[in-house]
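S.,

Sequence below, as promised.
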Amino acid sequence: MFYAVTDDIFLTPSGRAYMTPTRFAPYYYRMKPESFTLMREADAVPIISTMPDNETVYLLLTNLHTQIGAVERTIADYRKWNTWVSPLQHISESIRRESVEIGNLEKIRSALNAAYMKFIRYRPIKLPEPNPRKVAPGVYQDNEGNTMLWLAENQWRKDIPDNVEEFVSKAISSEPKTPQPVQDKLLMMQQMLENN
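The prediction came back faster than expected:
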């Protein structure tokens, strides 16, 4: 991975997004605006593709927007500084190393922009009935505690495939408790979706 957007979301230099929560290890998601694909470390074969998670995409877009602005300002500051100290590059190794940093920041900006341009076209999706509780992106439980997968085709799947069973068990057993303020915000977002 190239750049951490959040604790769990990383980008490649081309702007591909991956979500790798430690509680899901060795599983991770390849994130696209149209689907999240579950994968396992050391295997290049997709396990299953689910619908994108509204909350995760919102978090990604918010962080990308903030970090793009920060990188832009930092690059502008580095350029000013570099112009000021450029005559000293010939005599100072540390200044030469610092001047290379602009190139590194431009690579980060490129990855951030590529990811942002992919995900900005995402539109929040209302969960179809029944209104289940999210355990992990694409993995939900109904009111009776039955596990369901929300497939990328926008369909529920109640029979869990064998190759997904271990991940589902891990997700359920390590599920964090969502604090009430976050639940309230998610409820407001769900209500906004219903009104549209």
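The first strand starts at residue 3 and ends at 4.

Coffee later?
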